[in-house]
């Protein structure tokens, strides 16, 4: 099994960025924990972060062409704006889990919209960085079925 864990804009600033909302764990430490989790499950995983919408679309398409089994994605701010990322997820139709460290539904009104929510098998939110590990478990269970 091979999965892609994809992270959108400003998530490379985790640990520095608004720690009261996103916590003090750095992006590098989260990436390490994701890789350890996947290794423990016997899953190959790639963890990618980009600040660019088109690069995120390219990565979703690459997951299809390179025969990944599923995607865990935190599109960050693009969650609330990007038709292109939603269309890419639709286009590849790979099982996908949405994850947010915070709970966008309890924050500003503009964060209440998620263009990808109707397309994903599940959404993990408000669990901090550990939400990534939960999202991987959900994807793993879904693919293993
Ligand atoms: C986020 C929530 C988004 O609203 C925000 O723009 C982010 C991070 C989260 O993980 O809680 O950049 O996706």
Question: Which architecture would the CATH scheme give at its second level?
Answer: 3-Layer(aba) Sandwich
Report the uncertain regions: none
CATH topological fold name: Rossmann fold
Strand order of the largest sheet: 2-1-3-4-5
Q: Please summarize the sheet with the most strands.
A: 5 strands, parallel
Q: What is the 3D shape?
A: globular
Structural class: alpha/beta
Number of domains: 1
Helix fraction, binned, reads 25-40%
Quick one: CATH superfamily? Dehydroquinase, class II
Strand content: 15-25%
What distance separates the N and C termini? 12 Å
Q: For this structure, what is the CATH class? A: Alpha Beta
Associated small molecules: 1,3,4-trihydroxy-5-OXO-cyclohexanecarboxylic acid
Mind explaining what this structure looks like?
- The chain has 145 residues and is of the alpha/beta class.
- The protein has one domain (2-68, 84-102, 117-144): Rossmann fold (3-Layer(aba) Sandwich), CATH 3.40.50.9100.
- It has 5 helices and 5 strands, in the order E-H-H-E-H-E-H-E-E-H.
- It has helices at 19-22, 27-41, 53-65, 83-92, 131-144, and strands at 2-7, 44-49, 70-74, 96-100, 122-125.
- Strands 2-1-3-4-5 form a 5-stranded parallel β-sheet, with helices on both faces.
- Helix 2 packs parallel to helix 5 and helix 3 packs parallel to helix 4.
- The longest helix is centred in the N-terminal third of the chain and has 15 residues, at 27-41.
- The radius of gyration is 14 Å and the shape is globular.
- The relative contact order is 0.21.
